[in-house]
Amino acid sequence: MSAGVALVIPCRDGAETLGPCLEAVLPALRSGALQRLVVVDDGSRDATAAVARSFGAEVLTGRGEGAGAARNLGWRHVDSELVWFIDADCVAEPDALPSLLEHLREAEAAGGAAIAGVGGSYGNMRPEALLSRLIHEEIVARHAKMPEEVGFLATFNVLYRREALAAMGGFDPRFLKGQDAELAYRMRAAGWRLRFERRSRVRHYHLDRLLPYLRVQRKQGYWRVFLAAQHRQGAGGDGYASRLEALPPALALAMIGALPACATPIGPLVEAGLLAALMACHAPMAADLVRRTGDPSLWAYVPMASARAFVRGVGLAHGGLDLLGQRAAAWRDAAKPRADVNSGSAR
Asked: Which of 25, 101, 141, 329 is the most exposed place for a label (fewest CB within 10 A)?
C-alpha cells in the first residue's frame, strides 16, 4: 500500500457539474497533496468520461449498479493509504482535504489509529434558489449540532483509511440510497471510530426544483426501511438526525389513511389537526433558520419539509411492504419441504 491520498468520484450523467468538481481539486493534485484522481463513470449517457479525461482523471467504467458499487470499484483500484470520496456535484473548498487529514494525523500521533474515517460539511453552489437555500441551511443547522465523534458519515465528503474499507468489505451495493450510513454503522459495530469536521466543506449543487427533490426523498424513505432492518441503531437516530425524525412521515401517513373519514363530519377536523401537528414539527427548525440567517423567506421550510414528510412516508410504506414481502418469500422458501423438491425432480 502506498502512502498518500486517492480521490474517488462516482458519477452517472454528471458532465454538467463534474468539470467544476475536478477543477477545484487540481491544485491539490499538482501540489502532491493528492496522489490519484479517479472518476468512476457508472453507466453515463452523457459526456462524463470525456470531461473526466479532459482534466487528467483516471476513468473507470462501472456497470450502472449505483454509487456504492461505483465507489467500491474506485477504492479497490487504488492502493493509496487514504481514500477521499466526494460527489460529482460537489466543489471542494481549498481547506476541504487538509481539514480532514488533521484528524487522522493527530490520531496517529496519539496512537489512535482506530479512527477509520473523517467526514466534512457542505457549502452551497446555488444560493440564489430558495429550495437550495432551504436544503443547505437545514444541513448547516444539523451539522452545527454534531459532535466530533459520530456514528454516521456521508460520502459527499469523507476520507477513509483504505485498510478500514478493506476490512469491512467496502460499501454494500444492495443499498441504492443510504449505503454511506450502512457502512458507517458496520464500522462502528466493528470497533472503528468516526469523526466529523465541519470546517471541511464541499459546495454542493443542491437541487433547485421541488419535484426532483421530492423524488429523491421518496427513495430515501424507501431505503431507510432496509437500513433500519439491518442496523437497529439506524432506527434510533444518530448525530445528524434524532429518532423524532420519524414523527412527520408518520403524521403524513396518518393524514393519507384518514382521507376516507373526510366523508364524515369529524373527518375534516381530524385532517386539520394532523396537518397542524405536521407543520408544528417543522416550525422550530424554520424559526432557527430565519433567526440565524435573517432571511424571512426561509419560513418556506415549513411547507417544504411537510411535503417532504409525505413523500418520505410513502417511501417508508413502500419499503416496509417490500421488506415484508421479501421476508415472507424467504420464510416460504425455507419452510418448503425438501422432500417435495426431491420427489418432483425424480418424476
From this structure: 329
Q: How confident is the model at residue 237 (pLDDT cuts 50, 70, 90)?
A: low
Between CA 48 and CA 16 the distance in angstroms is 8
The residue count of the chain comes to 347
Q: Give domain status of residue 238, yes or no.
A: no
pLDDT at 343 > cutoff 60? no
CB within 8 A of 167, min separation 6: which ones? 190
Indicate whether 187 and 319 sit together in one domain.
no
C-alpha cell at 270: 381530524
Instruction: Calculate Rg over the CA atoms of the chain.
Output: 22
Pairing state between β 36-41 and 58-61: parallel
Cell digits for 10? Answer: 462516482
Which residues are CB-neighbours of 316 under 8 A, at least 6 positions away?
221, 222, 224, 225, 249, 253
Which class for 293: exposed (0-12), middle (13-18), buried (19 or more C-beta within 10 A)?
Answer: middle
Chain segment 260-294, per-residue pLDDT in tens? 988 898 989 999 999 999 999 999 999 999 999 99
CB 135 within 8 A of CB 206: yes
- The alpha carbon dihedral of 125, 126, 127, 130 has a sign of negative
CA atoms of 155 and 178, how far apart (whole Å): 10
* Residue (of 4, 1, 64) closest to 36 by Cα position: 4
Domain range for 110 = 2-206
Residues 116 and 185 in one domain: yes
Closest C-alpha among 163, 146, 329, 313 to residue 239: 146
Residues 188-198: what's their mean pLDDT? 93
| Structure-block grid coordinates of residue 318 | 413502500
CB–CB of 30/96 below 8 Å? no
Distances (CA, A) of 235 to 192, 225, 228, 244, 246: 20, 9, 5, 10, 9
**Beta carbons of 164 and 117 less than 8 angstroms apart:** yes
Instruction: Please check whether residue 215 lies inside any domain of the structure.
Output: no
How do residues 129-184 score in pLDDT, each as one tens digit? 999 999 999 999 999 999 999 988 999 999 999 999 999 999 999 999 999 999 99
Is residue 105 a contact partner of residue 82, using CB atoms and an 8 Å limit?
A: no
